[in-house]
Prior knowledge:
By secondary structure, the chain is α+β, with helices and mostly antiparallel strands. It has helices spanning about 20-30, 50-60, 105-110, 130-145, 175-185, 190-205, 215-230, 235-250, 275-285, 290-300, 305-310, 340-355, 375-390, 395-410, 415-420, 425-430; strands spanning about 5-10, 15, 35, 40-45, 65-70, 85-90, 95-100, 120, 125-130, 150-155, 315, 320-330, 330-335.
Amino acid sequence: MNKAVEIEVKGRKILLKMPKNEADIGYVRGILYSRWNKDLFLWEIPHYPGNLEKLESYFGKRISKLTKEERHQSTTTPKTTIEKTGILAIITQNRRIKLLFGYIPTLIKHIKTIPYAKWDSKNKWWTVPYSEQFLEEIKVHSAQAGLSLRIEMEPPKTGITKLKPEEVAQYKPAPESFKDKLVELRYSENTIKTYIPLFEEFINHFPAEDMDSLNEKHVIEFSRFLVTDRKVSSSYQNQAINAIKFYFEKVLGGKRKLYFVERPRREKTLPVVCSEEEIKRILKEVKNIKHLAILSTIYSAGLRIGELIDLPIHAVDSKRMQIRIEGAKGKKDRYTILSKKLLDLLRVYFKQYKPFYYLFEGLRSTSEKPVQYTSRSIQAILKKAVKTAGIKKNITVHTLRHSFATHLLENGTDLRYIQSLLGHESSKTTEVYTHVTTKGFNQIQSPLDKLDI
């Protein structure tokens, strides 16, 4: 029997050279995410735990060469030492501030007053949502207590990237029954677009398994893979589990089941909000009247990007000065306010662009077939305006909605009205804006301002 099987471990890949043999090819294809590199004439297999051992066990004495590249542990972080009179604040990737310090009662007392503050008993540190306001408060309290404050940024987590369908041999698409059931139960277009690739990632994680044989054990294994190897966010992991549950419970008609996997809690974070001055700077950079009308509508009415795209012309009621949002998140209708300035802007825009059905339409729109404006185009408009305005915050289209709510609150609007305008089912969702407002924050005086220097 030919022994010319060569294996080379190179970083996160296992490179395999072997003679053409249908039985061997079938075995290698059965290993998750293995693929044939037609340029190098070899198989590439992810260096996941256990994959090398599988190959060594299968090929055995047929392996003529096995080389392993030394992997440098550059990702390990040195142990952080903190002086008794010092505080270390680490801004994490998921928009939290991790606080490490000794026993300082006054600081602990203040941290407990910060919304969503959390004590991690295992790691012995506090975390609070990231905001410039909270960070400034910590600076003030550390200065008052005579403590040194060091601020660091957490390095980004790097996990295995999701493979594209063309990179997977014999890729299995989601069954038509899965898609049909999502449509039948009137799931939103965004949910359908999210669930299908998530479910496909799950079924392709087990290439050698028939779909009918997948069970709770596979769900648990896949969930752990997402966390330990892919290093996805808690939101992504939760959505993946929901997509899998939908298949088992709605498509197959199984009983509602609780899978014994670690369903991660979403970290409590605070939204990024622009000041009124920053909104003004952004809008002033938009010269195209259609683009200006789009961003102004989102900000002035507190709309989600999908709500703006779906907005028909007749939704604008100039007599009652309202905008009607139909079939929004949770399949609910609501009314929001129509700004006088926006109405004047829309009238000028309307005369120039003459949309057919939707308030904002794409270039190929016709009276017979109206075409909606795309979310990608709106994101590009805002990104360009933010860059030109010289604003460094991580601003998205949804930031305009957050800013709308915060500015209403700062101008004295009752929280219940804001909840109604935004279409929030729970008042707790709206209450988050009470934690990002700067109202009253300007009354805090830094101890440095009291020094005669």
